[in-house]
Each structure stands twice: as structure tokens, then as C-alpha cells.
Amino acid sequence: MFSQKQLEVFRAVMSTGSVSAAGRRLNLSQPSVSRILGDLERQFGVPLFQRKSKGVHPTPEAEAFLEEVERNYLVLSNLEEAAAQIARKERGTLSIATITAASLEIVPRALERLGVQEKQIKVSWQVKSSKWVLDFARSGTLKTGFANVLHMPTGMHLLFEGAVPHMVFVPKGHVLAADAGPLPLRELRGEPLIGLLGQVADELALRNIGSNAGAPMTAETSLAALTLSQHCGGLPVVDAFTAHYWQQRQGGQARIVPDLPAYRFAVFEPLGSRASMIDREFQACLIDEIKEIMSWTGAEPQEDARA
């Protein structure tokens, strides 16, 4: 295996065309340069230079070897600093893609817990639909994904999965805000509702729930449903992650709707992904934040898929 010192000497001799000039550049004596160069040639197996009265002339093998050395030298020269930064946990890049439900407090709090500012960690974070997040994961360009999924698709390494209840958000002053307990659908039959596109909206329509069942209001995301409620009235049915965030900031009462399908989600990474130490630390922080909200709803966390 070639040492970094051998490669430094080789590059200097190739650049200057002289053993003595290379020694001056590297602050080494001429005999030391000649010795290191001789050791390199013995390891290489063929001469790399032709010695002349004025300097040295590289062989074709040396020219070809220089291309490979230059291609890899930057990595080799940075290894020592990289190791020090990794040991201090001050190096890394996070590539994350999540749906809106995870973007309001789960991911920000996980990044805060990790200390990305103090550790100078570069963060690339996309907030998209579940389909987009999964497609992005399949391309291998993200390291950590969070999506609303019924079944985990192939091509993913599952890190954590779980389910939280859907909740109806009742604003302050509403009669239903006086109780924090579960709120069955039958008790919402006379209320104007805002459902989520997909399972929730389908279930409300199928069971004819809501005073506006004939002209329902639906939204793609829970955050959109909550915002629509503020402007147009109606009680939004939302996922527990968004409900927790909204209740903390807006007041009101989030109540579980026990007879709606659960909101299923997963944290994952692409199969074959070479996660760094920083990725693993972030994923642990993210899962801890998820578990806190699951505990708030009373949902039981499933077995951590990383174990």
C-alpha cells in the first residue's frame, strides 16, 4: 500500500521534474526524496523515472499513475481532517424528504435535538407528497424518508413504522371542546366537517357523516384542512402529528375519532443506502420525536425496525 508521503513525493517530482526541487518544496533533503522515490518504484514494480544529468524524466507508467493519484489525492489528503471532524460530530450532510405532517414539529425538533447548527451539518430537506417521497427514495438521492403509507413498498429499508389516530380539531369555544375524550363519528353527524382526501373522505361519505355530507369539503393535507377551517368554518379531521402541532399553537381541542381508519406512516431509507453516523443520529432523534407524539395520543409504538 502506498503511503501518503510517497504520493506527496511522487507528485512533487512529477511537478518539478527534479529530485532536489521536490525536496525544497517538501522541506526534505535530496537523499530523503531519492530514498522515498526508490521505495515507491520498488512497490510499483517498474521504474517511474529516467534519471538524467539535469533532473528526471517520467516514464509512461508514471504519467498514467499520476492521473490516478490526482483523481484520489484530494480524498487522501483530507482523511485526517475528516476523521477529526467526524470524531467531533461536526461533519455530515442530511438528505431528508418528508410529508407535511412531519414537517411542522417532528423534523425541526429532531434537527434541533441533533444540534445541526452547532455541528455545522448541511441539511437538504424536501417536503412533498407521500408518492413523491417514495419515488425520491427509490432514486437513492435521500437518506431518510417519512411518508403516509398503507403498505411499505419494495426497495426500502424500514427504520420505524406505526399508526396514530385521526383526530377532529375543535376550536376554542365550541361545545365539543369541553371534553378531551374520543369523539365517535355518530356524534359528528350534525357537524360540518372537512375531511382528508382518501380514506377519511371516503369513510365520511360512505357513512353519510357531517351536516355537509351532500356538499363535502376535503383537503389533501391536514394543515390545509385546518387552515380552511379557520376561514370557512367546519371541523377538520386531521392526523395526530398535525393536530398536536396545531393544539400547541392555536389552543382548541384535538379529539380522537376512534372509528376512522388509523393514519399509518413509516420512516425509511433506500435499500443499499450507506448511512453515515450523522444520518443514524438524526434518525434516532426523529423516531424519539415521533414516539413522544404517539404517547400523547395513547398509541403504542411498534417495535423499532432498527433493532
Please state the average pLDDT score. Answer: 89
**Sheet/helix structural class:** alpha/beta
> Compute the gyration radius: what is it?
30 Å
Sheet with most strands: strand arrangement: 4-3-5-12-6
How would you characterize the overall build of this protein?
- Helix content is 45%, strand content 20%.
- The protein is α/β, with parallel strands linked by helices.
- The strands form three sheets. It has a five-stranded mixed β-sheet with strand order 4-3-5-12-6, with helices on both faces.
- α1 packs across α2, α1 (4-16) crosses α4 (60-87) and α6 (106-114) packs across α11.
- It is rod-shaped.
- The mean pLDDT is 89.
Task: Give a brief description.
This protein is of the alpha/beta class and 307 residues long. The chain is built from eleven helices and twelve strands.
Helix/strand layout:
Elements: H1 4-16, H2 19-26, H3 30-44, E1 49-51, E2 56-58, H4 60-87, E3 93-98, H5 100-103, H6 106-114, E4 122-127, H7 130-138, E5 144-148, E6 156-164, E7 166-170, E8 193-196, H8 199-206, E9 217-219, H9 222-232, E10 235-239, H10 240-250, E11 253-256, E12 263-270, H11 277-297
Parallel strand pairs: 3-4, 3-5, 8-9, 8-10
Antiparallel strand pairs: 1-2, 5-12, 6-12, 7-10, 7-11
Helix pairs in contact: 1-2, 1-3, 1-4, 2-3, 6-11
